[in-house]
Design a protein that fits this description.
120 residues, alpha/beta, five-stranded parallel beta sheet
């Protein structure tokens, strides 16, 4: 089933349930052979930092750090909103594997090809 799929995530520890479910859905998309991208914005950009997600565990789901690693290992890409990242003064040298800091134009480019997008 070729095609693209986008998950937009604006939460981190402020809503660990949404953050976890977003990566569960992203993993399902990658497993369905979709070119999948997670776009982290607002508080979600904090997930781009190594170690940040290590203590996030929602009952009934794999730990968030595991879900993120599986997503990248499966071929998924994590895009991090540059202005959101800079506003929070995060460290570019501590990005998780598979993450890249990008502008909003990258999201628009990805979606302009008709990719569906779910937001959390």
């Amino acid at each position: 089933m070729p095609g693209k799929f986008c998950v937009s995530l604006a939460c981190a520890k402020d809503n660990t349930d949404k953050a976890t479910v977003a990566f569960v859905v992203a993993n399902a998309a990658v497993a369905s052979d979709k070119e999948t991208m997670v776009f982290l914005s607002i508080e979600g950009v904090r997930l781009s930092q190594k170690g940040y997600a290590d203590d996030i565990r929602e009952e009934g789901f794999a730990p968030l750090a595991e879900l993120m690693a599986s997503f990248v290992k499966g071929g998924g890409t994590i895009y991090v909103c540059s202005p959101c990242f800079k506003k929070r003064k995060l460290d570019e040298t501590k990005l998780v594997d598979g993450a890249a800091i990008v502008g909003g134009a990258k999201l628009v480019e990805f979606l302009s090809g008709g990719s569906p997008c779910v937001s959390y």
